[in-house]
Amino acid sequence: MRTAVVSGRIALLLALGPFLATCDDKATVLGDALAFSNEMAEAICSVFVRCGALPNREICLAKWRVDSREAQEGPTLAAKTAKGRVIYRSDIAQQCLALIRGASCRRAMLDEQALETACDDVFEGKVPDGQPCEIDEECAGQGSCIVTAVDRRSGCPRGQCVGRTLNANACQGDHHCERGQTCIAGKCGPIPGPGEACSKPNCRQSVCDAEKFVCRAPTPTGGACRHSSECDEWLASLCAHDGTCRKLVGAGQPCVGFGDCSPHLRCVGGRCQPRKAEGEICTAEDDCLVGQCRHGDIYDPNGTEPKRCLVPVTPLCDGLPAL
């Protein structure tokens, strides 16, 4: 999905102050992109809470806006929209948001292909093949920004747009196929549905049976499974250690390993416990609710300073001219 969610209203306004101050039209474009980004986060989190994957929207929004790549790139995408390198399609945005809000909690009733197709063109790239780029969303025709270097000062990527190559009769992945198709045994074709042959997980409103290689109904809670992708409750369950689909475990409840607990919790001493907040001392990456467990920029020659949950600063990559 080539959409992006900004990492927060304050960060965007600070990073893009010059654009807001110089042109009312650009401010309108930025406002539209910002409104969509915030609505996108709210829509996704409403599904996570409704389906029981997270307890409330506050925890979900905190994780989404800090940990997701889309959210981290939000200010950069908004700046490029203001420069005309990316076009924001408000009509498609509303269709995308409506589908997200109405997404089913059950895999058997979830139309992933319709959701992806609706959200794929919210931001339309205008940079032609062979021209400089910094993010995929800039590239026209669903192309990709192939990074060839990273600027040492800004930390921003430098690359060129490369168009999407379609090769229906000798595909090596879904990226060689038309949208809505999949690559199976070197050929592009419709995504298989229930009862049809399959070779990988992406069946239509079903799952690929690992033994029979046929799309079948997802496994209900309590049923036998080999992988979490087989479980019907796709957000709130997992394939547990006993080989059955189980609900994610809540705070204070018994757990066996890392994946047993809800995303805002971790398994410590056999119980699901809250993850560490930003700035708190940590020892491992999965300790943190948001950000990364690291030393940061503190000079610590003796190695005595503890690691903490810190949110990395993502650079605003906007060094290319307007179109």
Distance between the termini: 24 Å
Point out poorly predicted stretches.
1-30
> How much helix, percentage-wise, in residues?
25-40%
Integer average pLDDT: 82
What is the helix/strand order?
HHHHHHEHHEEEEEEEEEEEEEE
Can you count the helices? 8
In one word, what is the shape? Answer: globular
Strand content: 15-25%
Global structural class: alpha+beta
Structure description:
By secondary structure, this protein is of the alpha+beta class. Helices cover 26% and strands 16% of the residues. The protein has eight helices and 15 strands. It has helices at 9-15, 17-22, 24-50, 57-67, 69-72, 74-82, 90-101, 112-119; strands spanning 86-88, 123-125, 132-133, 144-150, 157-162, 181-184, 187-190, 207-208, 215-216, 237-239, 245-247, 265-268, 271-274, 292-294, 308-310. The chain has a three-stranded antiparallel sheet with strand order 3-5-4, with no helix packed on it. A two-stranded antiparallel ribbon has the order 1-2. The chain has a two-stranded antiparallel sheet with strand order 6-7. Strand 6 (181-184) and strand 7 form a beta hairpin. Helix 3 packs antiparallel against helix 6, helix 3 (24-50) packs parallel to helix 7 (90-101) and helix 7 (90-101) packs antiparallel against helix 8 (112-119). The chain is globular and about 55 Å long.
